[in-house]
Amino acid sequence: MAATRPGPPQLTNLYHLRTVGTEKTCSMCGKATFACLATPDVGDFIYVCTSHLADPGFAKPATSSSTPSTPSSTSSPAPASPANLQSEIEKVKAEYEAKLAAKDKALADAAVAKSSSSSSWLHSGLKTGYSAVSSLATTTMATITTPLAPPPAPVPSPHEVNKAIALNSKVFTLHRSIFAMRQDAVKKKWQAQDARERAKGLGLPSVPISRP
């Protein structure tokens, strides 16, 4: 009784990125490439350009593959908040109004106490008020014109993030349609080899290469 022959090898959808020493033709676009995806036991391998690795329609990084580290949120100082700036302006404005009210009250009291010298007091009060307004204006303008911190760096899109992860990964899983094609190719290769071995086992005579 003939021994049962093993079936075609079963592939696991887990391919490691390797670099070969000789340029090969990419199985997807036909360009020359040094990159190769191979199963851990090298039961199947496929030559492919690294640009295809960022295409989710071809492959995606395996969950065990390393990903680039995310920059720390504390690596750069937080930008100045417009709300904080507005709060400072309101605070300066309130202080100015309080000082102005105090000056008005002082001028009124002085006018009642010394009506004879009201003119000189008014002149002094106006001069002091002008100085306060001038000082406040200088402070406010300096606060407003202080350059704000540069805006935060733009947030990358999900596509850009996935592309960066793919280009830094070493282990991939093929898209189900691509993996099905690889399974079919491995099966056909095994069937051809099995047919040759069966023909040898039957002991069929070889085709003569010369006339009798």
UniProtKB/TrEMBL annotation:
An example of a Pfam family matching this protein is Vfa1
Cross-referenced InterPro entries: Vfa1
Q: Which residues form a coiled coil?
A: none
Chain intervals with Low complexity compositional bias = 61-83
Where is the stretch described as Disordered?
A: 59-85, 191-212
Which GO BP terms, alphabetically?
vacuolar transport
Could you identify this protein by its name?
BZ3500_MvSof-1268-A1-R1_Chr7-1g09410 protein
- Organism of provenance: Microbotryum saponariae
